[in-house]
Design goal:
GO terms for molecular function: metal ion binding; nucleic acid binding; phosphodiesterase I activity. Its cofactor is Mg(2+); Mn(2+). It holds the Pfam family FANC_SAP. Keywords: Hydrolase, Magnesium, Manganese, Metal-binding, Nuclease. There is one protein chain. 45% of the residues lie in helices and 9% in strands. By secondary structure, the protein is of the alpha+beta class. The chain folds into three domains: 168 residues, no CATH class; 127 residues, Serine Threonine Protein Phosphatase 5, Tetratricopeptide repeat (Alpha Horseshoe), CATH 1.25.40; 205 residues, no CATH class. A five-stranded mixed sheet has the order 8-12-11-10-9, with helices on both faces. Strands 3-7-4 form a three-stranded antiparallel sheet. The longest helix has 21 residues. It is globular and about 85 Å long. The two termini are 39 Å apart.
């Protein structure tokens, strides 16, 4: 996404500037290098941030992260972790830089010949303090698989097959590994594998500690160390949120251990470990930690789906019954039905009917209940009739170039007095995000724990609204007065470009915003926003593709576009039903492509 930035090229998730090619063009780093806490690029006075012109930008960033963790999590750190943070700063700069280079690279094993960095200087001198500290092993024993990962096919052929047969030379590297496995089943040091190579291998021994630091800083393991440098020339900006001790991602050491344990369980599952072994490792429910319990529930849901696909229906039922992840009750209901346990399925269906967790669950239930009634010989249920939605059919000339079907319909329907915009989910979400900015970025415990959140960490949790109910209610109450338009305009100007999980700055400009404020009734805004809060994860998507405004009449209509062979998705059906039920002007436009001899017509 940054390929077009001047003076920069994208490598993985990191930007390397042309400084490395000697051009002296740097890009902004994410972190400042002073001894204070990390500060993002925010609205307000200009800040002096390090650029990649500083060859030790990555080391400065790492120091800042250690300062952040040391200040905020000192009470949760082990003695070894505290010692590392204290001892790291005492090392020579070259040694510190080399260690960080290794930490930020993939894996834990590195060829000595590949650790050449101009700013560090001679690697043998830089690595010695790391070896003395026990953070790097200079003589690790390597399995054949590890050797293959570090070596070329030619090196392996020369060292391990000095006289290969012609058929061996034609082998792919993976096939060569399988051929050599029976002959080399013991681990050896690199110089024992490759005698007189003049090279070596170093192993980073503190990766587990670094992963723990990464988890404590980000609150997740999705982001790796390479993401610490985000050279975006100031394009990405983040809301400034106050932090308190209660804002930490983790409040006790046991929570960190539990998170890492769940992460390892997921890795074992993805690696294909037998389910019976994995189930024994899944911990009991975290009754006092909703965040960890949500992660545990998601793992149980994935395990249940695996059992369901594998035909292990009894195990799937057990997993779903112990799972609070959204959708688990419906999956359990389907498994009961699939198992022929129709009475139990009907009992669970009645429970769901009394207290549905979401509109999606209700929608699925409406499809399942009639089947259960038929299978149990019960009276039929009245068919649920969807709300009436206007339909239009268009036959258009197939567009040339990259124009989508939505773009073709937009162009066809657009008029000077009734402009059509392709907004999909962007507009209504943005209006919600602007009006409720204060509630969304409220500094609640567990919501923000580092300065680079684009939104609260608990956004997709079921209790997101409940924890902020009073704040959101106050925001929505503005819709009962004329204040809401002023608030939306003010936030639009004041927060321009700051990352938000709802506001789409690249789509919603001032002209579109003014048309929306003029044409959307406040009653409709309140209904849409309340529905978003009812189930943010599901309801942020599925809104109609196009919006047509009639500024003179102060009216609008929403238009969902379906091209040839396309059909309405479940979340789209739910939004259409909701809008039609509340008298909102919504239309579904079905498009067919005209033959070359036909004209476009309505």
């Amino acid at each position: 996404m940054h390929d077009d930035l001047p003076g920069a090229r994208l490598i993985g998730t990191r930007i390397e500037s042309d400084w490395q090619a000697g051009r002296g063009i740097g890009t902004l780093s994410m972190f400042c290098t002073n001894s204070q806490y990390l500060l993002p690029i925010v609205n307000g006075p200009a800040m002096t941030l390090p650029t990649l012109d500083d060859p030790f930008y990555y080391l400065n960033n790492f120091h800042t992260v250690l300062d952040w963790i040391g200040a905020r999590y000192r009470d949760l750190l082990s003695a070894d972790e505290r010692a590392f943070i204290d001892d790291f700063s005492a090392l020579p700069q070259a040694s510190r830089a080399l260690l960080v280079r290794m930490i930020m690279r993939k894996g834990t094993l590195f060829r000595a010949s590949k650790l050449n960095y101009a700013e560090i200087g001679p690697m043998p001198e830089a690595v010695l303090p790391l070896i003395d500290a026990g953070w790097v092993d200079a003589e690790p024993e390597l399995s054949l698989e590890q050797l293959f990962a570090l070596s070329t096919k030619a090196e392996i052929m020369t060292a391990l097959m000095p006289a290969p047969a012609p058929s061996d030379r034609a082998l792919k590297k993976a096939d060569l590994l399988e051929t050599l496995k029976p002959m080399y089943d013991e681990a050896r040091r690199f110089d024992a594998w490759f005698a007189d190579s003049g090279d070596g291998v170093y192993e980073l021994t503190l990766m587990a500690m670094c992963d723990r630091f990464r988890l404590m800083f980000f609150g997740n393991l999705r982001q790796d160390w390479t993401e610490f440098v985000l050279a975006d020339l100031g394009i990405y900006r983040y809301e400034r949120v106050e932090f308190s001790a209660a804002s930490r991602a983790f409040q006790q050491r046991a929570d960190i251990d539990a998170y890492l344990h769940l992460h390892r369980c997921r890795e074992r599952f993805e690696a294909g470990e037998p389910l019976i072994e994995l189930l024994d490792a899944v911990p009991a429910a975290f009754d006092d930690n909703p965040w960890l319990e949500a992660r545990r529930a998601k793992l149980l849901f994935q395990l249940g789906q695996h059992c369901e696909r594998s035909g292990e229906l009894a195990s799937a039922l057990t997993l779903y019954a112990d799972c609070t992840h959204p959708g688990a009750r419906i999956r359990r209901l389907r498994v009961l039905e699939r198992s022929g346990r129709f009475d139990a399925a009907l009992a669970l269906a009645r429970e769901v009917e009394r207290s549905p967790e979401s509109d999606a669950e209700t929608q699925h239930l409406q499809r399942i209940l009639p089947r259960l009634h038929r299978k149990l010989g019960l009276p039929g249920l009245p068919r649920q009739q969807p709300a009436a939605v206007e339909r239009i059919d268009l036959r258009l000339s197939r567009p040339t170039g990259p124009i989508s079907v939505e773009g073709a319909v937009r162009k066809h329907l657009d008029e000077p007095h009734a402009p059509v915009h392709y907004v999909e989910n962007a507009l209504i979400n943005s209006l919600f995000g602007l009006l409720c900015w204060e509630a969304i970025f409220a500094p609640l415990p567990g919501a923000f724990f580092h300065p680079f959140h684009s939104g609260p960490a608990d956004l997709s949790r079921p209790d997101f609204y409940r924890r902020r109910a009073a704040l959101f209610d106050a925001c929505l109450a503005r819709l009962d007065t004329h204040d809401y338009q002023t608030v939306i305009r003010d936030i639009f100007m004041a927060k321009q470009g700051i990352q938000s999980p709802f506001v789409h700055w690249g789509i919603v400009d001032e002209d579109l915003l003014e048309q929306a404020l003029a044409c959307f009734p406040r009653e409709h805004l309140k209904l849409w926003f309340a529905r978003l809060l009812w189930d943010i994860k599901a309801n942020r998507a599925g809104l109609p593709d196009l919006i047509q405004f009639c500024p003179e009449k102060k009216t609008y209509r929403m238009i969902e576009v379906k091209g040839p062979g396309d059909r309405l998705q479940d979340n789209q059906l739910r939004w259409l039903d909701f809008c039609a039920e509340h008298g909102m002007p919504v239309t579904v436009c079905y498009v067919q492509w005209a033959r070359a001899t036909e004209d476009s017509s309505t």
